[in-house]
Amino acid sequence: MPVKAGERLDPEATKARILKAAAEVFGRRGIHAAGINEVVEAAGASKLTIYKNFGSKEGLVEAVLTDRTQRVRAWHQQAVEQAGGDARERVLAVFDLVASWYAEAGFRGCAMMNAATEDRGQDGAPRRLAQDHLAFYRSLFERLLSEAREPKASARQLVVVLEGATLISAVDQDPGLGAEARVIVETLLDAAF
Q1: How far apart are CA 48 and CA 174, in angstroms?
Q2: What is the rounded distance in angstroms from the CA atom of residue 44 to the CA atom of residue 140?
Q3: What distance in Å separates the CA atoms of residue 115 and residue 69, rounded to the nearest whole number?
Q4: pLDDT of 122 over the 90 cut
Q5: How confident is the model at residue 5, as a pLDDT?
Q6: CA 115, 106, 67: angle at the middle one, nearest 5?
Q7: What percent of the chain has pLDDT over 90?
Q8: DSSP assignments along 35-96, one per residue
Q9: Is the pLDDT of residue 1 over 50?
């Protein structure tokens, strides 16, 4: 939204508005299919403002994914902290959280994995950020399962279930995959301790 005469600019609000609009456009159309003009229109910002804040479309993509990463990590951390209890309850809280995400209107899967897949094996920001995203989950689960027989192996298995369920839920548009993933996770946790 252009600033009216006499109004003060709020660079942080502008940047946040662009990130939100770009995330929506890229999520709906795909990174490569979406043009910067679509982001301009959705954000109500000029190309100049977008390039001034992000440098390029690639810079905007990286900023969108980085913002998403920060929000996802905070979301999971909050769920784990609220779960309290033992490791099992904390791990299950993560899967309950993503199950609720699968049921949200407009669910399109994991933005990180979608971007990395769309990046066609390039070693750019989408792939690097997706690798970091997977490492975050492995680290989270390893930390939660520190008392398990094989924390690294169990954590890796949980990441496979999480990302597999996320992908299948998005492709099949089946929010019920969250409940199925939880059953698999309960079995894995029974075997882990």
Answers
A1: 40
A2: 38
A3: 12
A4: no
A5: 52
A6: 45
A7: 90
A8: -HHHHHHHHT--HHHHHHHHSSHHHHHHHHHHHHHHHHHHHHHHHHHHH-S-HHHHHHHHHH
A9: no
* 38-69 residue pLDDT tens: 999 999 999 999 999 999 999 999 999 999 99
pTM (2 d.p.): 0.88
Asked if 129 contacts 112 with a C-beta cutoff of 8 angstroms, the reply is: yes
Return the biggest CA–CA distance within the chain. Answer: 65
Closest Cα to residue 56, out of 42, 40, 36?
Answer: 36
What separation, in Å, do the N-terminal and C-terminal C-alpha atoms of the chain show?
A: 55
**Are 76 and 94 in contact, with CB atoms under 8 Å apart?**
yes
Taking the C-alpha atoms of residue 139 and residue 156, their distance in angstroms, rounded to an integer, is: 9
Mean pLDDT of the chain: 93
Helix axes of 57-83 and 11-29: crossing angle, nearest 10 degrees:
90
Determine phi and psi for 63, rounding to 5 degrees: -65, -40
Query: From the CB of residue 98, how many other CB atoms can be counted at a distance below 10 Å?
Result: 23
